Amino acid sequence: METTLLLCSQLNMCESKEKTFFKLIHGSGKEETSKEAKIRAKEKRNRLSLLVQKLEFHEDTHSSRWGHLAKETRVSPEEAVKWGESFEKLLSRRDGLEAFTRFLKTEFSEENIEFWIACEDFKKSKEPQQIHLKAKAIYEKFIQTDAPQEVNLDFHTKEVITKSITHPTLHCFDAAQSRVYQLMEQDSYTRFLKSDIYLDLIEGRPKRPTNLRRRSRSFTCNEFQDVKSDVAIWL
């Protein structure tokens, strides 16, 4: 009898402990679930906040960039009209040079103005190493047969440059530059004055997007290592 009572007592104690244990487990699970839900909600709010900040930053940057570009490229109709007075006056103005370059890109002949710009920069060279490196780069890019941006020159002019390129001088491209200048003045410049790009400027209309065959690889002297260049003032 005593043994039976003792067993019953122990079973009751075990049952009580099991109930307590399950209550603790169940309660802990609820508490853990609640904590996890709060953490997830906080993380979600943080991610949303970061996303909004990024979108606002992007919009501000985008607006600022386009506003800056619009300010830079603004040309008065009066200024644009002056470009029609002569080809020399057009190229002497930075905005005029930029507009003419855009026009040549629509005709797929931007290598002409880029060669002219390169020659202008080349003639400012002072150090012998500078002269040699820039001359070589201009020759390989614009003059030699099958050059990536070969300009249209007669055989004699190309031959003279080819023979002098090993010992270049500041005037070794003068004949070629003069030839390309004449081609642009007599041909491209006339069409530029009748183009939408120019007419929009003199009438004060917004700049239109242009469809280009390819992105022009503008001449820069970054192609030369350790060689300083002033070509940036032309671009």
Q: What distinguishing features does this structure have?
A:
disordered N terminus, 9 helices, mainly alpha
Q: What this model shows, in words?
A:
The protein is mostly helical and 235 residues long. The chain is 69% helix and 0% strand. It contains 9 helices and no strands. It has helices spanning 2-72, 77-83, 87-92, 94-106, 111-122, 128-143, 155-164, 174-192, 196-202. Helix 5 (111-122) crosses helix 8. It is flat.
Sequence-ordered SSE layout with sheet pairings:
Elements: H1 2-72, H2 77-83, H3 87-92, H4 94-106, H5 111-122, H6 128-143, H7 155-164, H8 174-192, H9 196-202
Helix-and-strand structural type:
mainly alpha
Shape from CA axes? Answer: flat
Indicate the radius of gyration in whole angstroms. 37 Å
Proportion of helical residues: 55-70%
* Weakly predicted, low-confidence segments: 2-8, 50-72, 213-235
- Individual helix count: 9
Summarize the structure.
The chain is mainly α and 235 residues long.
